[in-house]
Amino acid sequence: MDEFPVILEDVDESGGDVIIYSKPSYAGIKIDGKDTHLLTPQRFRAKAGEREITVWKRGYHPTRKKVEVLPGRIVEEHFILCPATIPIETRKNFKDGAVTYVGVIHVTSTPSKANIFVDGVFIGKVTPEKLALPVDPEPYNISVSKPGYPTVGMNIINTERDQEIHLTLKEMH
Question: In whole angstroms, how large is the CA radius of gyration of the chain?
Fold first, then answer.
């Protein structure tokens, strides 16, 4: 990230600097619904006032926040994107004219009914569960947790073929 901000169109000296970080990185940034064509992490100057900032990345749910940009000030925001799971029956996801291929990961655990996390974000599901995630050359971190047990996880490269992972939780003593 550069020390000096990118100046967006129609922004004068009365704007403020915004620094956006996201997990995962290299996500797109929109301001008030308009694509900036910038990727996180990024520092840019925006118009003063309340702005809606949206951070998005293929395979993840977009995340929005209202941010107050103050003249001559710097505001820093962190976004965590939640992976978008896709219905199991769908092997191709058609969005914006692009085809996203998905793979199915069957997650089980001992004991069962453990909370499932994808890249550190709870996805609202418990084991056993079949997850349909976009194919990505970068590994997903799949982890499970349950009260009274330390979190256990593993990295997995999602491909178009079905995969199974079993995670064993050991009781804390």
Answer: 19
CATH of domain 92-168: 2.60.40.1120
Q: Residue 128: which pLDDT band, with cuts at 50, 70 and 90?
A: very high
What backbone torsions phi and psi does residue 133 show, to the nearest 5 degrees?
-120, 150
Segment 10-22 mean pLDDT: 82
Residues 152-162 as b or e (16 or more Cβ within 10 Å = b): bbeebebeeee
Q: Which residues, other chains included, contact 9 with Cβ-Cβ below 8 Å and sequence gap of 6+?
A: none
Structural tokens at position 98: 């692009």
pLDDT more than 90, % of the chain: 39
Rounded to an integer, what distance in angstroms lies between the CA atom of residue 55 and that of residue 162? 30
What's at 22, amino acid-wise? S
Tokens read off for 163: 């995969």
Cα–Cα distance measured from residue 119 to residue 130, given in angstroms and rounded to the nearest whole number? 16
Is 2.60.120.280 the CATH classification of the domain at 6-80? no
Task: Give the residue from 93, 89, 82 showing the smallest Cα distance to 130.
Answer: 89
Contact of 55 with 20, CB cutoff 8 Å = yes
